[in-house]
Write a structure and sequence with these properties.
By secondary structure, the protein is an alpha+beta fold. The protein has one domain. The strands form 2 sheets. Strands 3, 4, 5, 6, 10, 11 and 12 form a 7-stranded antiparallel beta sheet that branches. A 5-stranded antiparallel beta sheet has the order 1-2-9-8-7, covered by helices on one side. α6 packs across α7. It is globular, with a radius of gyration of 22 Å. InterPro entries: DUF4331. It comes from Micromonospora cremea.
Length: about 475
């Protein structure tokens, strides 16, 4: 969660595992949209001597659909290469790394960036260096400066960064996957009430972990389709975003003389649109299939959105807490509210002043209405909290997507499509109990927004 190790096969391939996706109108540059895709989840900062990196044999892509068919109209493709400067050393670095061309840095990674649009490929940059991993105060003493050096403004209007960042996703993994325990309500759990006498303190399981991020800030004119106007009510203002990772179909292992080789066309092994979709909605037996398909095929999974397993589990796990939700799930009435949020976008007329509908094609994408400006005082509950610039209108780094998703599944959004339904009182309060304040590394106010990665020397913090 949000999409860390969410499927059996991709859990074995972390370098290609897309863990989080963000898409939002840039608060410090509102004529642009920022897209961030995280990979290589759950990195232990002290994981040397072979520190984490992107895969040279993986094609990473961020896709934008601007006409609602669930297929990419614009794609930003990142491809990486790694170089070793001292083949006779086992060390990642032999002294302080004070610049991206430091001779002390032994394993450097570079990338090319290609924009694909209108059936044509345009290479925007070649051999841009990534920053190193944040090793520690002796090896990377001025890490923020290295990140500054590795942030590039391109002549075509994009800003781009690729490298290690702090994982900004906050979730109580240990509790949630222990039979759906929510620590703030653990004493109400069907099994927990035998053990717990009071509510518990939530634990951010991903705190002090790092990820590798690809981030691109793009002028709005480069992602939206051409139109006469881009008002908040206009379909042309809405884009759908997802990310993917692909590998070549054939890999031949070397025999001690020849090196490993990969060949054949690229095939998709991971993707991510809405947070938690494959994690929570898609059944275990179909998760690997979902990772291999484009969003345009997601009608295959609509039944699991219409009747999500978690909506039936909540009343069972928390007896007498969700009686109205229990009756709703037993009636087997399709959840049109969740279909709108996850597969088609929210149509006009359901929420005052808001829509991010893309049409009838059912596709899991982060849908962003680019005509809705960022707010100076964001609400972590996004649209549920009255903040139309937040999830599920795109996703900002501080949005509490776990609580938002839980509350939607618990029935808070059902009245949007069924005025006769009354959500349970607990539905608007259900939460794992975490927020952005539980992320040790603070988010940044500007690109690339995710915080400075934790260094290995200080993780865990040295005792005083």
């Amino acid at each position: 969660m949000s999409s860390h190790r969410e499927a059996p096969e991709i859990a074995k391939d972390p370098v290609a595992d897309s863990s989080d996706l963000y898409a939002f109108v840039s608060p410090d540059k509102p004529d642009s949209v920022t897209l961030i895709a995280n990979y290589v989840p759950l990195q232990l900062p002290s994981g040397g001597p072979n520190f984490f990196e992107f895969g040279d044999d993986v094609r990473y892509e961020i896709h934008i659909d601007n006409d609602g068919d669930g297929r990419p109209d614009v794609t930003y493709r990142f491809e990486f290469t790694t170089e070793i400067t001292n083949p006779n050393s086992f060390l990642y670095n032999t002294g302080p790394i004070d610049s991206l061309d430091s001779r002390n840095w032994n394993r450097r990674q570079f990338y090319s960036l290609t924009r694909v649009a209108d059936g044509r490929e345009h290479r925007l940059a070649h051999k841009l260096p990534c920053p190193p991993c944040n090793v520690g105060p002796l090896s990377t003493p001025k890490y923020a400066e290295l990140v500054r050096q590795a942030t590039y403004s391109l002549s075509t209007g994009e800003r781009v960064f690729a490298g290690q960042r702090a994982d900004g996703f906050f979730v109580d993994l240990g509790a949630i996957f222990d039979l759906g325990t929510l620590r703030p309500f653990q004493q109400l759990h069907v099994a927990g009430k035998k053990i717990f006498k009071a509510e518990g303190e939530p634990v951010n399981a991903t705190d002090r972990m790092n990820v590798h991020s690809i981030a691109v800030q793009v002028p709005l004119s480069r992602v939206r389709r051409r139109a006469n106007r881009y008002g908040a009510a206009d379909r042309a203002s809405v884009i759908g975003v997802w990310t993917s990772a692909s590998r070549r179909q054939v890999r031949v292992l070397g025999d001690g003389v020849a090196a490993d080789t990969s060949t054949g066309p690229f095939t998709q092994v991971s993707r991510l649109g809405n947070p938690l979709f494959n994690e929570v909605i898609v059944p275990m037996s179909k998760k690997d299939l979902w990772n291999s398909l484009p969003p345009s095929e997601d009608k295959r999974f609509a039944q699991f959105v219409e009747q999500p397993e978690l909506a039936a589990l909540l009343p069972a796990l928390y007896p007498d807490v969700f009686p109205n939700l229990g009756r709703l799930t037993k009636a087997k009435k399709p959840r049109a509210d969740l279909v709108a949020i996850l597969l088609t976008g929210v149509p006009a007329g359901l929420i005052d002043g808001f829509t991010n509908a893309t049409g009838d094609v059912q596709a899991d994408m982060l849908r962003l209405n680019t005509a809705i400006p960022p707010t100076r005082s964001p609400d972590r509950f996004g649209v549920l909290g009255g903040d139309l610039a937040g999830y599920p209108n795109g996703r900002r780094v501080g949005d509490d997507v776990v609580s938002i998703a839980l509350r939607a599944i618990a029935g808070v959004t059902v009245p949007l499509v069924d005025k006769t339904f009354r959500p349970d009182a607990a539905a608007a309060a259900v939460t794992p109990g975490l927020s952005a304040a539980d992320v040790t590394a603070p988010f940044l106010g500007n690109f690339p927004y995710l915080g400075t990665p934790y260094d290995g020397f200080n993780n865990p913090p040295a005792s005083s």
